[in-house]
Each structure stands twice: as structure tokens, then as C-alpha cells.
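Late entry, heme B/C complex.
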Amino acid sequence: KCPFPHEALKQSVPTASSGTKNKDWWPDQLKLNILRQNHPGSNPRDENFIYSQAFKTLDLEAVKKDLHELMTDSQDWWPADFGHYGGLFVRMAWHSAGTYRITDGRGGAAQGQQRFAPLNSWPDNVSLDKARRLLWPIKQKYGRKISWADLIILAGTIALESMGLKTIGFAGGRQDVWEADEAVYWGAEKNWLGGDVRYKHGSKGVSNGHGVLVADDNADGHIHERDLQKPLAAVQMGLIYVNPEGPDGNPDPLASAKDIRETFTRMALNDEETVALIAGGHSFGKAHGAASAKHVGKEPEAAGMESQGLGWSNSFESGKGPHAITSGLEVTWTKTPTQWSNDFFEHLFEYEWELTKSPAGAFQWVAKNSENVIPDAFDQNKKHAPGMLTTDVALRSDLEYEKISRRFYQNPDQFAKAFARAWFKLTHRDMGPRERYLGTDIPTEEFIWQDPIPKIDHVLVDDQDISDLKLQLLNSGLTISQLISTAWASASTFRGGDKRGGANGARIRLAPLKDWEVNNPAQLIHVPNVLEGIQNKFNSTQKADNKKISLADIIVLGGAAGIEQAADNAGLSVIVPFRAGRTDASQEQTDIESFHYLEPVADGFRNYQRAGLDVPSEYLLVDKAHQLTLSAAELTVLVGGLRALNVNYNGVKHGVLTSRPGQLTNDFFINLLDMAVQWKPVGDSKLVYEGYDRITNEVIWTATRADLIFGSHAELRAIAEVYAESDGKEHFIQDFVEAWNKVMNLDRLVE
Ligand code: HEB
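Prediction complete; structure with ligand written out below:
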């Protein structure tokens, strides 16, 4: 050993991104980073670039042709099983879409997140790094005209077509982002595929310390045997859904069926869709577990720089082709793994299944007493016995799944049709309204899960009509607060993840929205009636030119009129922009069960929180702000303005820090930051606080955590100060109106 102290002489140079950070010192600090994602500066494309326009210039047929050719263009660096990449690309697309959760609408295929951590490194996504690299030449060729997010789904869809399954179409329109999404709650565990921490027993709510919170509406006090934490759609970190070997690696098909049902329901799929997808997916390709996982290197995010973003290098023999190790399972389901067939069900029912282990030591099932009828992926002289995963056998063990599986076995056409429809839903579920779909392969059929809204069939109101209607709204007998809170209730159902909800459709008057606690049904009930009265009067007198206004528009217009009046009452004149063109959905166009998931457990903007949540209100507030795609400043100005406007749930006074409630003022900020007031929690729950006058010791205000966070959180306080400054009043009103207008139009995604 050299006696010279090389190590000691090495100089350490501190760099900007290294060192201990706030998140290390105060891990539970409320983080606003999710409100600052996808800043225009992070986008390498021209600021005027509009993806939908670029896509319209794409020669979709040419891309499809190239994809068809790619399927059989086997590359030495990652040879295709059975000479066809179809199975790999179907799995890639399914894993891209399969991160969607209906509970909060986050996850899914729409941003191309599979390129980034954690998804690019999830144990369940092994080898999909190779799939995306195989696609790169096509991505490169068509450039900005097709996003990764679209290309990944299109590749899976063309893979199906190329293997003989007739799909029902494809829509483009998924715009790429350039950074990992920080907002998705993937779970709280610290280990990949670590224990069963996602299941809890009878607890009431969940906080994760990541600034994203979730509430458990299973909180019925009942002790659930196996109660998967909301909103997770996977039973373990790193899995798209469920453990293929069975719950926690225990090869029990029936128990596994329970996990499948729970997780697929989270993805908005019913039993029939679930059976069709699993069986249809596993009609193709194979599982890879040639040898023990000890041969497999680090995942992409942890691999050496020389790996250039690839991971899981495999030291077993050639490390690819017949030696590939992906899941560690080694199964081929059908006799024709590159051709659609009914083999999956035929095998499932015609064989009895025996538990065995893959060469890598994982539990899997093999057909008893079967001939070796299954081809080998590389050696034409080799044959294998049919195999199944525990999760596949579950489709026969579970009573409900079994019924569907048998029907599909006996009716292959029903199976193919159900698969094609479920595949389209799976891969388009998170894109929002159909109007956003791009391309020439869009199915003409309208699906209920698309939350359809009628097309405009009337002439829109003009400026004169708008000011007439505003007057009528203000004279309708409804209070300013009612007008504003109804508009807010309607528009704020929007969620950015899957672009569902919003003011369009006026679904606030329909089940289930009209019965939501947050909308205070007892009070809401007559507001739409009054508004409808105004609408009917207008529409019945405008017949000649077919000029009409929808209730959805009237609701938003009422909010605008209310805010203008509230500003006027405070001595300021503002115009709240209004653009007509919304239409009204019917009850039949509204899938009650699926809208149930949009119900807010909290709306800090109205100081509402469902009782019994074990999550601090400020976390729920930031979560909601993220759903509304608001920045931290927009969040702040909206809360301050709405408090002054007195639109709290059920008229509670918390946070209405003004002596003139109902006027649009910056009083909330002035009084919140006033040093003459001292705040103290009421009781131990730390839900409600009282503000004492330091001199008289009298209680002058009350507030919740969703109010006081704007004084206690250093970054939010800094924003609040801007709106409380002596010259901040005008600025406040302008910003409030802008942010309000943004929320009212969140669902108008197509220009
Ligand atoms: Fe699947 C494969 C699992 C569902 C499609 N999968 C596979 C595998 C596994 C699994 C483990 C193997 C991998 C490797 O490579 O190794 N899955 C699973 C589970 C589930 C599923 C657990 C739930 C239950 N899949 C599914 C679906 C689909 C699919 C839904 C679609 C639709 N997968 C698939 C495919 C494949 C698989 C295609 C093959 C791949 C290749 O070939 O590469």
C-alpha cells in the first residue's frame, strides 16, 4: 500500500445541489414544490410550441407503419422473444397507463412519466428501459410531432394490432413533461417491495410527510382485514398492481384475487374489464426469470454513468434473450405468444395447475400432465409446458372472475371485444374530455367514463346579454356569497391529473355532486333553481336567432357578477372576464359511481374538512391547490379573497378576518399579519385557533390551519405580505380575479 496520504489531500468542493437541505432538517415541513412543477423554464421546447398543433402535422400512418416494422426488427443488444417485440411493448404501455388511480386522478400515461424516477426504476418495470430504447429511433425520426407519452401508448396498441387483435382505436394528445412528477403519492415505504406496509388496520386517515395527503374514506371504524391505503393502486411500492406470486409472495390464488379486485377497482376497472385485460395481456409474450436475481445489477437511477440510463445489467451468461431476467418468473402462457388466441382460457380451464418454482426461485404454476406444447422464445427445438402466475390462476379460483372467464372461454368474440374496449379505456382514461383527443383513429363511440358533455347547439350570448344577465343575477335574491360559492363549488371539482370535473356540464345540480357534504345540500338546493329560472327566462325570449345560455355558464357568470359587486362594495371597480360556451350534461351522461371519487374530503378554500380526518388541513389545502393546477401565489390570493368574500362552508366564520365580510378586500392578509393579535389553539386537536387582542385579551378572530398556514409557513407568509402591503390592494384584486378566472376555465382545455 502506498504510504502517501492521497485520500487526505483530496479536496472536497461544495456544490450547489449537495449538502443537507431543508427537507433533511425538517422532513415534515409543508412543501410547496408540487405547486412549482413544470415551470416554463424547464421546457426545452420553444415557448410557442403547442403539442396539439404539432401532432396535427404528424403522418400517423407512417408512424404506425414504422412501428409495425419495429416489432420484428430484432436488435442484437436486446433480441426479441419469438422474433417479435409485441409482448414487451404491450407490457410497456400497460405499465405506463397502469399507474393511474381514480381516487385522485393522478398517475397514468399522460405525461410520459415512465421516463423518469421513480417509475423508470420500479422493480416492476424491469426491461422496459430496453423497450423505450428500442423506440428511440422512431421518436427521433418524428421528433416534436409525437410525444413519448403518446408513442408509448401507440406502440402498445400497434403491437396488439400486429399480433392480430383488432383494437378500437388510438387518440393522441398526451403532452410530455420534462421532470419527475413530485405530486403522486406512491406510498410511504422506504424499501422496494418491502413488507406489507400499504395495508393498515382500521386507521382513519393517512399522511405521508411528502406534502401530498390522502384520506381514507373506508374510515367506517370497522377493522378491515386487508385494507389497502388510499389512493394506492398497487399493493407494494415498485409494483404496478399486485404481486404476481400472490399477496406478499404467498401463492394463494384466492387471496390474490382479492388484491386484484381492490387494485383494479382503484384504476376504475370492473371485474369484466379486469379479467379481459389480464387474460388478454397474458395471451402474449412471456415472463423472464432465467436465473437467480443475484445476477441483476442496479436499476437505472442507481446504475453507473456508463450505463447511460439503462439499468438491471444481467451477468447471467449473455444477459439477454434466453438469459433475460425481468420478473424472475419464467412462464409462457400460450402456444402462439405473438398471435392473439383463446389459449389463455383454454389452458386455464383444461389443465389443473400445480405450484412450482421458476429457475430464479419464484412461485409460479405449471400445467399438470401436459405435453410440452409451448414454444421456446429462441430455440425452435425446445418446447415447454403451459405456465401461469398466481394472479392468472386467480381468474379461475375467484367465483366472480371464474364466471366471466368461462364466458370468455366459450365466446372468444366477446373476449376479444371486451379486451379491445378495456384496453382503450385503460390507455385513455386519464386524458380528460374527448375534445382533447387527436388523430384519425379516434373511436366514434362515446363512453360514459369520458364524462360526456353535449356539443354547443346554440348561438352564444353577446356583451349586452352578459351585462343584462349579471344584473338579473344580482337581483335574484341570492346573496353575493351564494353566487360566488356556487360558482366555486361547480368549477373547483376539476382535477389536473385526469382532467375530470370542472364547471362545464353543470353537474353540480346532478347526483352525486348535489348531495356532497362540501356543497351543503340543504343550502345549495334552491340556488340552481333560481339560476335555472333566470336561464329559462332568457332562453325563452331569445328564440329567433337561437341564442341561448347554459346553466353551466349562468353558474360561472353568477360568480363573476358576485365578485364585481363585492369589489364595488369595497370601493373598487373590476371586470371579471367571462367566456360563454359551456353546456349542460344530463344525469344519464354522469357516471354516479365514478363521480363519487371527485368528492373532496376537504376544501380549504371554503374552510371545509370532513370530520375525523387524520391529516393536517394545510396539507389537504396544498393537495387541492395542486389538483387545481395553482401556483403558491394563486393559492394564497384565492384563499385570502374567498375568506373576505365570506363563502366558507356552512357560513363558519373561521378565517373571515374582516369587519366587512362580503366585500372583496385584502383584509385577510392585513389582519393575519397584524402583530396586535396573538393566536392560540383551541383544545388539543389543533384544528381551530383563536386570535386574541394582545391588549384587551379578547377573542377577536377564529381560524383553522388552512388560514394560519399563510402566517406560519415562511414562504406562504412572504406571499401574504405582498398582498398586505400598503400598496398591495390593487395588485391583490387583479391577482384574485386572474386566479379566479383560471379556476373557472380549468376544464376548457381545447382552444
Ligand atoms: Fe402482465 C408479462 C404480471 C396484468 C400484459 N406480467 C408479465 C410478467 C409478470 C406479469 C410478472 C413477466 C414480466 C417479465 O418479463 O418477466 N401482469 C402481471 C400481473 C398482473 C398483470 C401481476 C395483474 C394481475 N399484464 C397484465 C395486464 C396486461 C399485461 C392487464 C395487459 C393488458 N404482461 C403483459 C404482457 C407480458 C406480461 C404483454 C409479456 C411481456 C413480454 O413478453 O416481454
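Residues 200-225 have pLDDT under 50 and may be disordered. Will revisit in the morning.
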